[in-house]
Sequence to fold (412 residues):
Amino acid sequence: MLILAASLNGIALASYAAADWPEFRGPTGQGISAATNIPIHWSATSNVIWKSAIPGEGWSSPVLANDRLYLTTATTPSGTDRPSLRALCVSADDGRILWNVEVLSPSPNTAQKHHRKNGIASPTPIVHGNRLYVHFGHMGTAALDLTGKILWKQTALEYPPTHGNGGSPALVGDRLVFSCDGEKDPFLVSLDAKTGALLWKTPRNTTAAKKFSFSTPLAITVEGATQVISPGSGFVGSYDPKDGRELWRARYGEGYSVITRPVFAHGLLFVSSSYDRPVLYAVKPAGASGDVTDSHVAWTHAKGAPNTPSPIVLGDELYFVSDAGIATCVDARTGSVHWSERLGGGFSASPVAAEGRIYFQNEEGIGYVLKAGKTFELLATNDLGERTLASPAVADNALILRSQSHLWRMGN
Fold:
């Protein structure tokens, strides 16, 4: 199997098989796959290897390791109003559900507050080694082994959520890092991945009026040291994974409900300020210390910037799609626009890249496949016929899509 062994777009990576997609946005955390033979065309009836009904509701993206897919969902058992937050394992070969385990059962009052496009099972799991890490925001986090046995739970981190939970954790060495950006007193935390114990808790100290955000952190290597990048309301911050100390920050005013996961390439960090008027920022983390708003922002771009879907870098180009369906390609180093075209529909899922193509999936279930490059070239428009908000997973010979009620494996 093809191995990603060294660095991609300037990031030092662990070795992953091209057949694996272990976390939100894949082995790089940035939507890029080295897999091959990925389908370009599909529909609800063509190029479907299998289609599996998934019980309950959830918009967590599927993750994949060793021919098994993992995701989360929320059900309400008959005769009760108490939600059941669950982890599932699905065979990547035939779509069979191999196990379905209840992880948490929070009170209805704890679980009820969420956005119509969100839910109580939106964060994406992480599979690493012989463990699966699942996260349900303010309701708790847990680790399971790959047979579904619960190893630990962490439910002590209480905070008042807004619109539910969307941000996923990042695994940084031997610790899980995730944001707890609720309606007040937002903070970033690190848990011991082995035990679930709290290692550090860092307040955001933001002046933004609306404190809530949902971004997934990204670990990057800068000048030989690891930094954890975590956008929140009002600013993007860099943190030392050892102790949670804030290393630097770049402000973006009142930007809030920040959802996009950052990407890092060509020595630049790309971050969207999200609501109400998103601006895409390119920030230079090398040499950054303290407030670097005036010194380390290389360029900004506002037209067609995303509120929700994360951007993606392939080669020298940065690609992104607005929530309203405008796809844009710019020079990653300068922000110069190569093209901007309407795809159509609303977008929440983050794009993925494989074999020189960019895959965009809209909320109505339509997938757009574009040839990567400085000229706009639409290769295919594929209608699944079912609502899709989760981001795809990519593997050799397969594209994995999660829709409103199903998990699909598409292939040639």
User: Anything to note?
Assistant: The longest strand covers residues 68-75. The chain has a mean pLDDT of 93. The radius of gyration is 19 Å. Residues 3-410 form a domain with the Methylamine Dehydrogenase; Chain H fold (CATH 2.130.10.10).
